[in-house]
Amino acid sequence: MGVMTSFIDATLITADNALRTLFAPHRAARPTPAVSAERQAEAAQMTESERRLSGALMRVNHVGEICAQALYTGQALAARLGPGRPEERERTARHLEAAGQDETDHLAWCQQRLDELGDRRSLLAPLWYAGALTIGVAAGLAGRGISLGFVVETERQVEAHLDGHLDRLPARDHPSQAIVAQMKADEIRHARDAQQAGGVELPPPVKWAMRAAAKVMTTVAHRI
């Protein structure tokens, strides 16, 4: 693909990402964070209630990664089709898509852990994706600085959310803890990279609205 991306190309990229995220098997570029054989054996002794709790928390994390994919895809689409110099627009889009590659790893890891726990992904995944994609497009159309600032704030909130899950996961669920810890490290890096690339601080009302939307998603996804 050259520097210039046509409307048709950008739309096809967006549609392809949506279909892959929602319906295709997720394939990680990196291996799943590993734990020792001893800790694997300990995790195998989890009670049914512990498994249900871990499954609910990992389902929420899986939904969060679906939303992250949609946000990055929407922002990349807006970057390619919005105002500004073509080279800068394409550079912003590529930056967002590179971060999205880590989210693909997270999706695969969360799905693998859900399978191991005998649990399922959220039944409302297409709805979460559509909502996050819309928000991503709106953030992207607001300009490069705000779009990258949106990434910074999103990743900071996700970091706090993952911290909470590390506290709530059963003590014996070492595999889930390892996955969540690596996800947290990646999100911290994404926030740092977006800030260094020119992300601006978002107004407090925007941050509050983002927290409220995330609260609705996590509450519903915990059960459905």
TrEMBL record:
It catalyses: a 5-methoxy-2-methyl-3-(all-trans-polyprenyl)benzene-1,4-diol + AH2 + O2 = a 3-demethylubiquinol + A + H2O. Binds 2 iron ions per subunit. One of its GO terms (molecular function) is 3-demethoxyubiquinol 3-hydroxylase activity. Fe cation 2 binds at E103, E155, E187, H190. It is a peripheral membrane protein. Catalyzes the hydroxylation of 2-nonaprenyl-3-methyl-6-methoxy-1,4-benzoquinol during ubiquinone biosynthesis. Belongs to the COQ7 family. NCBIfam families: DMQ_monoox_COQ7 (NF033656). This is 3-demethoxyubiquinol 3-hydroxylase. The gene is coq7.
